[in-house]
Automatic annotation (TrEMBL):
<dbReference type="InterPro" id="IPR009731">
    <property type="entry name" value="P-like"/>
</dbReference>
<dbReference type="Pfam" id="PF06992">
    <property type="entry name" value="Phage_lambda_P"/>
</dbReference>
<protein>
    <recommendedName>
        <fullName>Replication protein P</fullName>
    </recommendedName>
</protein>
Length: 212
């Protein structure tokens, strides 16, 4: 079986190698600062690591996890540390938990809060999700059921929007206009005798005669 290196075009390898090196440098340079902050936030961190070797292994695991989860900016790290400061738990976070903090609030949660607070939607997917769920959420669903229903609807429409399959519905103008064609069409009277007896068209025409 061919390896990734073997099937990757030669011209792309230096670029990919450089990108990987940049990610590794970012993680290596950041991990000590991250752990310094986390140890200040969680004073009982010494109880979690038996010795320096175990601490170094956890640091390496954090660096690997950050790279795998796309945590590659200082802004993301600051977001994760900010979330750590707001936690009531005294337990040192796992690498997965910290990475989820760095990734920030899921988009559907922000959209859900905007709907509840009657803040305008920020995307077409968000608008459609509101249209599909707002009545049920406000009238008959519990809080967990409402979040679940909105999350499913939002992710559905977000996927369609990302594929270019979601478009704005055509809306009628706020003021209607009557054209000459409309006037001519409305001036024509259709009689039942113009159609075959007892046909659908004859019956419809007969109803029109009754309203004259």
């Amino acid at each position: 079986m061919n390896t990734v290196t073997e099937v990757t075009p030669y011209a792309q390898r230096p670029k990919q190698a450089q990108q990987a090196a940049d990610l590794n440098d970012f993680a290596a340079q950041s991990i000590n600062r991250i752990f310094k902050e986390l140890c200040n936030i969680y004073p009982n961190w010494r109880a979690c690591f038996r010795d320096a070797d175990e601490l170094n292994l956890v640091k390496a695991s954090f660096a690997k996890g950050m790279i795998e989860n796309g945590i590659i900016s200082i802004a993301q790290v600051q977001c994760g540390l900010g979330k750590a400061r707001r936690q009531e738990s005294d337990f040192f976070p796992s690498v997965g938990k910290f990475c989820s903090w760095c990734q920030g609030e899921p988009k559907w949660q922000g959209a859900f809060c905007r709907m509840l607070n009657r803040i305008p939607a920020q995307s077409l997917a968000e608008k459609r999700a509101r249209q599909a769920t707002s009545w049920a959420i406000r009238n008959k669903l519990s809080a967990p059921e409402a979040e679940k229903k909105f999350k499913l609807a939002f992710e559905k429409y977000q996927g369609l929007e990302e594929q270019g399959l979601l478009t704005e519905l055509v809306q009628l103008p706020p003021i209607s206009y009557v054209t000459e064609f409309d006037k001519q069409r409305n001036s024509i009277t259709v009689r039942p005798e113009q159609f075959k007896a007892n046909s659908v068209f004859a019956r419809v025409a007969q109803k029109g005669v009754h309203h004259e």
